[in-house]
């Protein structure tokens, strides 16, 4: 407690934001797994399950754009608390009797959850820019990597938690338990978050939501393709494949996806050590392009191996573990570059725009995951993934190199 009180007010506020983000991430990961597995057992097709998440991703796109504007005007503490409250409401919507859990109702609950999740992400990622001096790019990279990696590790725990709670408490009991726990976090946050982190010095105009920076626009386009490449197999196709083809139960499916995301988060946390140049410089746009090219061929190799029928469990699970390592490095590089490129005054505007593109990529991947898997199977999802990563690599070639990295976007 003495060490905590010795920290500056800004750092203490940031730690509260981070703790909120972690708590939210647990419920978000668990809810995703609950919905996929529960509705798969009810006989929903992969495309129908993908439709349940359609509003989650669509409203995430809108929220990142508008949320960045709100964060700059009213402060990141208020957007954080708003996100927590909305997530509690979304969870409670799913505790209604089973007869009321229709597709439109679940899609509505997922829409609220998508809004809540991106308000939280934007608030946490924007806050970190305010704590590091412009010249300390190495420190900035480490802080971003730790925040992002720890969040994704907790999301993996959430996947395991979702599968476990579904088996122990059933769908309604699991969702109600999560709603009660998050409500307590929300109440604590209302008391502890008092400082208007991230509030712009002048009131931004609505048109300022769209980025005027070329590096941010290029990075956002690459991010869209990168996350579409992940979710085209990860969101729907993989858990359904593991359950229906490999015959895994809820615990195994949730446990594997949890291990994948936890490992992915751990690699993100140490990405600065893996990607730092020999001369000690932080990575730049060229680094993002190189690492994307390295990743691009892997999903295609996995698809070819599955098509040849060689040890499908070893080929798929081992290949996707390697994909997780390389994808984590790519994602961590992107997360550092956007915070580095963003302007400090009204930082949430630039970061909100970038994560709007991230949400568009997830939306694209989610829809393709259900449709491509239902029509053509998992190998086709992996081929699409490879094509999207290649496109992200080609786009990343246009990113600034190191000597331009510290320049402010226009």
UniProtKB/TrEMBL annotation:
Top-level taxon in the UniProt lineage: Bacteria
Pfam families from the UniProt entry: MFS_1
Annotated SUPFAM superfamilies: MFS general substrate transporter (SSF103473)
Statement: the UniProt record of this protein carries the keyword Membrane: yes
Gene Ontology terms, MF aspect: transmembrane transporter activity
Keyword annotations of the record: Membrane, Transmembrane, Transmembrane helix
Keyword Transmembrane: yes
InterPro entries: MFS, MFS_ArsJ, MFS_trans_sf
Residues passing through the membrane, by range: 21-41, 47-70, 82-107, 165-193, 214-242, 248-267, 288-308, 314-339, 351-371, 377-399
NCBIfam families (UniProt xref): MFS_ArsJ
Name of this protein: Predicted arabinose efflux permease, MFS family
Organism: Halopseudomonas sabulinigri
Lineage: Bacteria, Pseudomonadati, Pseudomonadota, Gammaproteobacteria, Pseudomonadales
């Amino acid at each position: 407690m003495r060490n905590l009180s010795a920290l500056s007010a800004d750092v203490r506020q940031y730690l509260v934001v981070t703790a909120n983000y972690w708590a939210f991430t647990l419920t978000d990961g668990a809810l995703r797994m609950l919905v996929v597995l529960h509705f798969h057992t009810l006989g929903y097709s992969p495309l129908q399950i993908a439709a349940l998440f359609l509003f989650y991703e669509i409203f995430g796109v809108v929220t990142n754009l508008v949320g960045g504007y709100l964060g700059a005007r009213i402060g990141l503490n208020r957007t954080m608390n708003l996100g927590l409250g909305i997530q509690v409401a979304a969870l409670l919507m799913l505790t209604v009797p089973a007869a009321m859990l229709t597709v439109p109702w679940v899609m509505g609950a997922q829409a609220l959850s998508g809004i809540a999740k991106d308000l939280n992400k934007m608030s946490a990622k924007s806050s970190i820019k305010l704590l590091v001096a412009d010249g300390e790019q190495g420190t900035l990279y480490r802080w971003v990597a730790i925040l992002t990696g720890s969040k994704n590790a907790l999301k993996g725990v959430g996947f395991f938690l979702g599968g476990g709670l579904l088996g122990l408490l059933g769908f309604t009991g699991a969702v109600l338990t999560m709603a009660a726990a998050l409500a307590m976090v929300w109440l604590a946050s209302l008391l502890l978050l008092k400082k208007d982190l991230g509030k712009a010095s002048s009131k931004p105009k609505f048109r300022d939501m769209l980025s005027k920076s070329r590096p941010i626009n290029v990075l956002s386009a690459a991010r869209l393709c990168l996350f579409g490449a992940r979710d085209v197999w990860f969101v729907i196709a993989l858990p359904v494949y593991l359950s229906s083809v490999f015959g895994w139960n809820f615990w195994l499916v949730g446990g594997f996806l949890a291990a994948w995301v936890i490992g992915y988060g751990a690699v993100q946390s140490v990405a600065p050590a893996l990607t730092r140049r020999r001369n000690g410089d932080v990575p730049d746009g060229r680094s993002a392009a190189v690492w994307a090219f390295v990743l691009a061929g892997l999903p295609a190799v996995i698809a070819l191996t599955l098509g040849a029928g060689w040890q499908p469990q070893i080929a798929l699970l081992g290949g996707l573990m390697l994909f997780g390592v390389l994808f984590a490095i790519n994602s961590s590089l992107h997360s550092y570059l956007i915070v580095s490129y963003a302007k400090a005054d009204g930082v949430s505007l630039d970061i909100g725009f970038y994560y709007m593109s991230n949400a568009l990529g997830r939306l694209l991947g989610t829809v393709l995951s259900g449709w491509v898997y239902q029509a053509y199977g998992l190998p086709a999802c992996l081929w699409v993934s490879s094509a999207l990563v290649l496109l992200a690599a080609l786009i990343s070639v246009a990113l600034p190199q190191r000597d331009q990295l510290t320049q402010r976007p226009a």
